[in-house]
């Protein structure tokens, strides 16, 4: 049995996203991310390639092009309104507000700033326009079961990195 990451191995990772300019940790996972290597596309191909052959305890750092992931920053998705027009429950930095456009499409906006006169929300992903590095630590490696291979992850838990990144929104 191999103790290195290869195809059809069940792997658990912890990871964080670090802002390259400030060194601030922007995102961390609250629970290990489990997936079947070479089967689940939960991570980018670049990350998957760098994990191949790694062992428990190994840490890799992968610079991520946020423009490729989220597109260019769109200033038309930033809105400021008078504070009296905003319900009190939304007056909190980091609060996510879901809005619907005229086509019925839903979009998340984050409260980025407010004072006693105005409140600003931003529909861009918080990682958009930043230079970031994913720091991943290999926690465990084992043979995946047939059922896990079919699912691409743990049978009772199938985390999706996109869901985790959406939490950052």
Strand residues, percent: 35-45%
For this structure, the CATH topology of the largest domain is Chitinase A, domain 3
Domains, number: 2
Shape: elongated
Q: What would CATH call the architecture of the largest domain?
A: Roll
- Note poorly predicted spans: 158-169
Count of alpha/pi helices: 4
Summarize the helix and strand pattern as letters: EEEHEHEEEEEHH
> Can you tell me the CATH class of the largest domain?
Alpha Beta
Helix content: 10-25%
Number of strands: 9
Radius of gyration: 19 Å
Overall structural class, as computed from helix and strand content, comes to mainly beta
What distance separates the N and C termini?
40 Å
Can you walk through the features of this model?
With 169 residues, this protein is mainly β. It has 2 domains: 9-68 and 127-167, Chitinase A, domain 3, CATH 3.10.50.40; 74-122, Thrombin, subunit H. 15% of the residues lie in helices and 37% in strands. It has 4 helices and 9 strands; from the N terminus they run E-E-E-H-E-H-E-E-E-E-E-H-H. The strands form 2 sheets. Strands 1, 2, 3, 4 and 9 form a 5-stranded antiparallel sheet that branches. A 4-stranded antiparallel sheet has the order 5-8-7-6, with no helix packed on it. Strand 1 (9-19) and strand 2 (25-28) form a beta hairpin. It is elongated, with a radius of gyration of 19 Å.
Question: What's the structural blueprint in terms of helices and strands?
Answer:
Blueprint: E1 9-19, E2 25-28, E3 33-36, H1 45-51, E4 59-65, H2 66-70, E5 78-82, E6 96-100, E7 106-114, E8 118-122, E9 131-143, H3 146-151, H4 161-167
Antiparallel strand pairs: 1-2, 1-3, 1-9, 4-9, 5-8, 6-7, 7-8
